[in-house]
Specification:
Strand order of the largest sheet: 1-2-9-4-7-10
Radius of gyration: 19 Å
């Protein structure tokens, strides 16, 4: 598969967008036809050819359609259909950033996939996904500049409201701070932090912290052979109280026990694969 992931060049766009990424599967490419997407508190706009189908499944629903679409923040594992060749560009937004934007349906939306009318949303006369995808295939830097130009005209009309701004400040603290002390670090009451974060994202601080930890843990595990995984060491390294706690944690997020995960190894890391930022 051909892939890349790059942060926006434009500082205004970067306040809303965490990264752009590209993934192309050609007919001769192997890999799992039905990989699984980790729970993710961010939202991602997928740009794809207008006739290219998509299919996602979680424990309760399936979502299918063609062309451009939103993957809204998801608390559940999503199974993807990668059985046929495809090309996609992803625009991953910062956690809570969608709350500042005027896009339907009303924020926050979680565990849903919606088609995206990019022309109406960006208020442009025309939009050609094919040209962007061609740029992504041959010159990622030119593609980033084109995406920045396209999104700047839209995003410059918005400011991060106080809810999204607080999320932007709170998220980096979740990795190394006690949630109960975030209010003091952010110079507001703990109740205010909890309320605003939930309103902007649809998740509690604890849920977001747990999803961030899951991503780090699965990325770490992906670098190990099955025989090299020491689950007791994982319990200690990722601050689980004991092995049953780890088992409950994985079952709740991805529906698998540690051993089942080690055997299958079909989860993706980050958005659509484990690849580094350029």
């Amino acid at each position: 598969m051909k892939n890349w992931k790059i942060v926006p060049y434009n500082s205004t766009v970067a306040r809303f967008v965490q990264c752009y990424w590209f993934l192309e599967k050609e007919p001769h490419d192997g890999g799992n036809h039905y990989p699984k997407l980790n729970p993710d508190p961010s939202g991602t706009l997928i740009l794809s050819p207008s006739n290219q189908p998509y299919l996602y499944k979680n424990l309760l629903n399936s979502f299918k359609g063609v062309g451009n679409h939103w993957i809204f923040p998801n608390s559940q594992m999503l199974e993807l259909d990668h059985s046929n060749p495809f090309t996609i560009i992803g625009i991953k937004f910062h956690i809570g950033a969608l709350y500042s934007l005027d896009i339907p349906p009303k924020r926050p939306v979680i565990d849903e996939i919606h088609s995206a009318d990019v022309v109406t949303m960006l208020k442009v006369e025309q939009f050609n996904e094919g040209k962007l995808i061609q740029l992504a295939q041959i010159n990622p830097q030119d593609c980033i500049e084109a995406l920045d130009d396209l999104l700047f005209n839209w995003l410059s009309k918005f400011k991060l409201n106080k809810h999204s701004e607080l999320c932007r400040r709170a998220v980096p603290l979740l990795n190394n701070s006690v949630i109960a002390k975030l209010g003091g670090e952010l110079h507001c009451s703990q109740r205010t932090v909890e309320r605003i974060f939930s309103r902007a994202t649809g998740f509690t601080l604890k849920q977001c912290q747990s999803m961030n930890k899951l991503e780090k843990m699965l990325e770490h595990l992906s670098q190990l052979d099955e025989a090299a995984i020491d689950w007791l060491r994982i319990v200690d390294e990722f601050d689980f109280s004991d092995q049953p706690h780890l088992i409950r944690y994985l079952k709740s997020f991805i529906g698998l026990t540690p051993n089942e995960y080690a055997n299958e190894r079909h989860l993706t890391i980050d958005i659509y694969g484990n690849f580094e930022s350029s």
